Amino acid sequence: MALVVQKFGGTSVADADRMREVADHVKRTRSRGDDVVLVVSAMGKETDALLRLADEVNEQPPGRELDMLITAGERKSIALMCMALDAAGVPADSFTGSQAGFETDDNHGSAKILSVDPHRVLDSVKKGRVAVVAGAQGMSTDNNVTFLGRGGSDTTAVALAHGLGADACELYTDVSGVFTTDPRVCPTAKRMESISFDELLEMTAVGCPKPVMRSVEVARAFGVPLHVRSAFTWEPGTWVLEEAPDMERAVIKGIVPDTSQAKVTLSGVRDEPGLAAKVFRTLADAAINVDMIVQNVSESDRTDISFTVPLEDVEVATSTCESLAASLGFSGVMADVQLGRVSVVGAGMASNPGVAATMFETLAENDVNIEMIATSPIRISCVIAEEDVDRATAALHTAYGLD
Ligand code: ADP
Ligand code: ASP
Ligand code: MG
Predict the structure, then answer these.
(1) Residue identifier of the C-alpha nearest atom 5 of ligand 2
(2) Pocket of ligand 2 (CB under 6 A)
(3) Which ligand has the shortest distance to the CA of 256?
(4) What does the pLDDT look like over 216-225, one tens digit per residue?
(5) What is the largest CA-CA distance in the chain?
(6) Parent domain of 21
(7) Which whole-number Å values give the CA distances from 87 to 74, 79, 141, in the listed order?
């Protein structure tokens, strides 16, 4: 007998029929003798709808109130899910994030989990009931409702699985697992049987949306076995483990397209110690996540520095840099938002020469210009034009034999 945390995303609980199907699945799981704790997202596109509504009332809503509004989406789901379970003859109790013991910091909109004390969830399980927990929410140390951020239900599920000492955390979604690339971009994408935490973390860090990166970080830190799988076909999906067990695995595990980044270039920066430090400290203080950084060799005493930031931060990043231009004496700040990135990821590449050469050759053969390159022991990323991303992804998927 095992304890399983099962998390269902928005599309998986989008309407009454979906809720009934999930309830049937929970019933099947319990008939095998396992205990189930459910985590659910808001129904369908409800979170987007609530964000739009807020925007209509106030373009810059107070964070506390926005979190109060968004978390209502998941609250609706837990109540309806418990009703569906009740109708299927399965006793169930709903819990908001705070009732489930999620304590967070007060960073509204992207609160971090400080601790989880799921004793009420555990009591419910011990009574033979199904606990249904609202995803992506908690309560701050000063007792305000907080939202963990987009996709935060994955993180809720993993943290809860750890807090309960569950045997597995199953993330149910609208595809049958983690794919070799985004199945929407490349129809030849294949489901992986398994992937290591390190590889998946690297994939999510460069733009793979599923599962959310923070959930993979928590799963890796606490060794929570993850199973990403379909809420539509119910077939076995992708296991995320300490080390993927297939010794013969391909060198390259996945290709990750990403169009969510922009590039900022500072030109004519004086080539002297401390200038980069000043720029990136100021950006960090403005809470901007800088990713790839390139500094050119200078011919005179001036140099260019380019870096990438998330698209939504590009305006703040540009104005922050402009405010430094006079004091640091650089001549210009330029932003490029028509930018994309394609990355190849796989633990095998560290010990296999030629992976980078294959990537650059493939991009060259397809007339794709590389603007920036970054590497880690298990990843190579190239910044390219946004319009080339889908084509480059498909070509690389073929070149590394993943089709
Ligand atoms: P949920 O709402 O269930 O949490 P999301 O909609 O956030 O799920 O993420 C699932 C989507 O992620 C899939 O529909 C798929 O199109 C997309 N996706 C992009 N890249 C990948 C990948 N490499 N493997 C699996 N899914 C991916
Ligand atoms: N409903 C929230 C979102 O769409 C949280 C989640 O689904 O994980 O981002
Ligand atoms: Mg989601």
Answers:
(1) 151
(2) 9-10, 41-42, 47, 73, 135-136, 150-153
(3) 1
(4) 999 999 999 9
(5) 77
(6) 3-174
(7) 20, 12, 37
